[in-house]
Amino acid sequence: MPKYVLGAGSLRELKGVHPDLVKVVKRAIELTTQDFTVHDGLRTIEEQREYVARGASTTLASRHLTGHAVDLVPYINGKLRWEWPPIYAIAEAVRTAAVELNVPIRWGGAWDIDFTASTDPIDDLVSDYIGRRRRQNKKAFIDGPHFELPKALYP
Ligand SMILES: [Zn+2]
């Protein structure tokens, strides 16, 4: 028996999300050592405008608008927690699920790499990403709960 299952709210958030990404999320909840909630699947343009206004997103062209992205947030003692160690555990489960199902995933903890093909420890991926951005004199926008299907393969 898997340790965790997706709750009704999570399943609702998955409505309208691309089936390949849904498959990965459903497999990830079976594999994960950290419970999570699908906090955000499909988003409306109005919701996206609010996200950008509060700095939670940097783009109005979000993959959430087209059903190509999900946010998986740690669920601990009945609360959503945006905290790193549990976020790493969820990302690990997503990577394992993506490899198993052969679905390419782009992760908000290291936007510029092929996450599914990566083999480094999850926390190294984040610090390496921050280092690369720093060397390019660019800001690193890290969004650990965010997973999306790459646009090049899923337009
Ligand atoms: Zn997101």
Describe the structure.
By secondary structure, the protein is an alpha+beta fold. It has one domain (8-146): Muramoyl-pentapeptide Carboxypeptidase, domain 2. The protein has helices at 8-13, 19-31, 45-53, 84-101, 122-135, and strands at residues 36-40, 69-76, 79-80, 106-107, 146-148. The termini are far apart. The model has no long low-confidence stretch (mean pLDDT 95). The protein has five helices and five strands. The relative contact order is 0.17. 39% of the residues lie in helices and 13% in strands. Strands 1, 2, 3, 4 and 5 form a five-stranded antiparallel sheet that branches. Residues 40, 64, 69, 71, 143, 146 line the site of zinc ion (ZN).
